[in-house]
Amino acid sequence: xxxxxxxxxxxxxxxxxxxxxxxxxxxxxxxxxxxxxxxxxxxxxxxxxxxxxxxxxxxxxxxxxxxxxxxxxxxxxxxxxxxxxxxxxxxxxxxxxxxxxxxxxxxxxxxxxxxxxxxxxxxxxxxxxxxxxxxxxxxxxxxxxxxxxxxxxxxxxxxxxxxxxxxxxxxxxxxxxxxxxxxxxxxxxxxxxxxxxxxxxxxxxxxxxxxxxxxxxxxxxxxxxxxxxxxxxxxxxxxxxxxxxxxxxxxxxxxxxxxxxxxxxxxxxxxxxxxxxxxxxxxxxxxxxxxxxxxxxxxxxxxxxxxxxxxxxxxxxxxxxxxxxxxxxxxxxxxxxxxxxxxxxxxxxxxxxxxxxxxxxxxxxxxxxxxxxxxxxxxxxxxxxx
Length: 386
What we know:
Number of strands: 18
Number of helices: 13
Number of domains: 2
Helix content: 25-40%
Distance between the termini: 47 Å
Radius of gyration: 20 Å
Oligomer: single chain
């Protein structure tokens, strides 16, 4: 299979490419990014004849579609703000696709992908992505499902890349319509920092108060598990404590509205200015502890008894004791590797059907967990009566 990697120069997509080189049988892996220098550097670093690179601005739609038609699958590592455009290009080109976010208009292209007998899997990272599969794994072992509470800790700098800075800003936008919970058959919009809940994450990440965030799991799981009579789906998240402290201050003082201000002859969004500063500052580009932590609780009934499934995940430490996992890579590998695994499962025909499919519908959770374990990322589960 020939794979085109959009945004391949980004930190997370680099990890997905690294995993493809190490584990896949792809015949061609092409890095496509607007940063031509980075594309060349990454391609040369792999020293693999299958890996090449090309400069591509996804906003050049004609060129993007023409390029995609020479590939079987597009692995999309672009920012959320570009996913609408990249998805429409994939649909026009008639190729398989996968991305990390799942929170834009990907679902509007169901008919185009189905007609072409292609599959698009939006949101196949760590969360959304692996969290969807953890929830599905537990739900499949229950007769009915009452509540699904998904939580994660993403321990990384607040602005180590433009896409991460964009994600941070988007998730706490005061007016964001997609910050939702699913409750008693309805979607309810909530403000930033809603429904605080204390979550104990696996070591070394500790216990943190987490808040509702806008994630695709809230939208897809109630539909996927409609036969289980799910009453509640909530997704929470946290970043390092200092990141959360900054966001609370920015929210309290109105900076998250991104009001326009005039500085001399220039008019800018105040949050745009803060983001630009963070992208250049040492405070915005480093943190004390790196990595990822998932915590998923699924309550329901099994053989007449009310039970609670608790699923967590662990990975090698970020202290440099395990090669390849030092500092930021303990975060980026967790996000990029699941997308690579999804690509490989699509290429092997392990996805049944076509169209736009949520991760929990596209992939077998058990098979994905086995693949993660090969990369030293492990899923743990426990069940107890309520």
